[in-house]
Design a protein that fits this description.
CATH superfamily of the largest domain: Crotonobetainyl-coa:carnitine coa-transferase, domain 1
Structural class: alpha/beta
Shape: elongated
Radius of gyration: 26 Å
Strand content: 5-15%
Oligomer: single chain
Number of helices: 15
Order of helices and strands: EHEHEHEHEHHEHHEEHHHHEHHEEHE
CATH class of the largest domain: Alpha Beta
Helix content: 25-40%
Mean pLDDT: 86
Distance between the termini: 22 Å
Strand order of the largest sheet: 6-5-4-1-2-3-12
């Protein structure tokens, strides 16, 4: 038995919210994608398998729709589908939608109708700016939401305009926030017997990704800037022998590396007599600088890192409790022994693309772990009939299916 085995999730999302229901599906919930006859637009999102034209050609759709089934309903054209849809809503514990407010309208639903059918359901609505306020209803793509949420302001070198993250991230953050909000609302429902409407603003979710940057001004009197809060102009991504790592030239890093630095002749033994806490203060107040300034340590550490591999520096940092964080490439992530030990990556046969590695269980429990993701629980084809579940959506042509159905 898995963590959410007793629960059902209805997924009306597009590509902006699809990871939220998938998270619950990974934990064992029965997730049913409710799609119009033409299929959800998420099935057409790039990148796609070259030369493929079926409803599973989208690699994005395959990545974020595993552990789901699919049902095709057209309640506006077929009265029987209206009954089927209401039966599904009545049977569900969660309902997810994403996009601009009103995305359920083509199915003849809104928040009030969902609540009327099932007063215990947790209804999650994901949108760029929330369902109320002056920007409710406005379109917001990945870059717009990230910029208006705040994190773009902190991205990139301080001597140029902000930069965006190369691979879109916003809707993945937001979808996971929606899953967390859904579980919190469900916990409340178990105590009160009353469902909830969870309004997830993508802008607000992205603001939370800035972490302590939100509190910086209240604590230190000024905001964080690109390049760091105190060490303006210092690159925290440093070259090393076989790539890059993230390391700040602060006292905890320096003291942790000191014996190694002295052993290699990168710095002389008198460094052991330096008050490195005072050095940290000199980062903000240069007049407190001692023998080695910030610029000196940047040069010393840069030369030291260039002589060592990411693996050497990571192992040393773990042993000493200091942050020497390698910047991993995609191939390196696929070979990372920590993820291998957790059985994280799984092979999946994808027609037209061969056998590929796909992310597996992201959480484990002492009592029940999400099972590996077999091909039979990969992203569901559109309009695929699976007999054991047909009775749940009783109309001719209705489809509840998964891969391998």
């Amino acid at each position: 038995m898995t963590m959410l085995d007793p629960y059902r999730v209805l997924d009306f999302t597009d590509e902006r919210g699809e990871i939220g229901p998938m998270v619950l599906g990974d934990l064992g919930a029965d997730v049913i994608r409710v799609e119009p006859p033409g299929g959800t637009g998420a099935r057409r999102v790039e990148p796609r398998i070259a030369g493929a034209d079926d409803d599973l050609a989208s690699l994005s759709f395959r990545a974020f729709n595993r552990n789901k089934r699919s049902v095709v309903l057209d309640p506006g054209a077929r009265p029987a589908d209206r009954d089927s849809l209401e039966a599904l809503v009545a049977s569900a514990d969660f309902l997810f939608e994403s996009g601009l407010p009103g995305t359920l309208a083509p199915f003849g639903l809104d928040a009030a109708a969902v609540r009327r059918i099932n007063s215990r359901i947790v209804h999650v609505c994901i949108s760029p700016f929330g369902i109320d306020g002056p920007r409710a209803g406005e379109v917001g793509n990945d870059l717009v939401v990230a910029a208006m949420g705040g994190p773009v302001f902190l991205q990139g070198p301080g001597d140029r305009p902000p930069v965006r993250v190369s691979v879109p991230q916003v809707w993945r953050h937001v979808g996971v926030e929606a899953a967390v909000g859904a579980m919190a609302a469900h916990a409340r429902m178990l105590k009160t017997g009353t469902g909830a409407f969870v309004d997830v603003s993508a802008q607000c979710a992205m603001t939370w990704t800035m972490l302590q940057a939100m509190d910086a001004h209240a604590i230190q009197g000024f905001d964080f800037e690109r390049g760091g809060s105190l060490m303006l102009g210092i690159e925290i991504v440093q070259p090393c022998k076989d790539g890059h790592l993230i390391a700040l030239p602060t006292s905890d890093i320096i003291v942790g590396l000191l014996d190694w630095l002295i052993e290699e002749g990168a710095i002389d033994a008198s460094a052991r007599e330096v008050d490195w806490e005072l050095y940290d203060q000199s980062l903000r107040y240069p007049e407190l600088a001692q023998k080695w300034t910030l610029a000196d340590m940047v040069e010393i550490l840069g030369g030291f890192f260039a002589r060592h591999t990411k693996r050497e520096l990571l192992d040393f940092g773990i042993a000493r409790g200091i942050t020497l964080a390698p910047v991993g490439t995609v191939p390196e992530m696929l070979e990372l022994e920590h993820l291998a030990a957790r059985d994280y990556w799984h092979e999946l046969a994808v027609p037209g693309a061969g056998v590929v590695k796909t992310a597996g269980a992201w959480a484990k429990s002492n009592e029940s772990s999400p099972a590996p993701v077999p091909s039979s629980l990969a992203a569901p084809p559109h309009d695929r009939h699976r007999p054991p579940h047909r009775a749940e959506v009783p109309r001719a042509g209705a489809a509840v299916g998964g891969a391998g159905a």
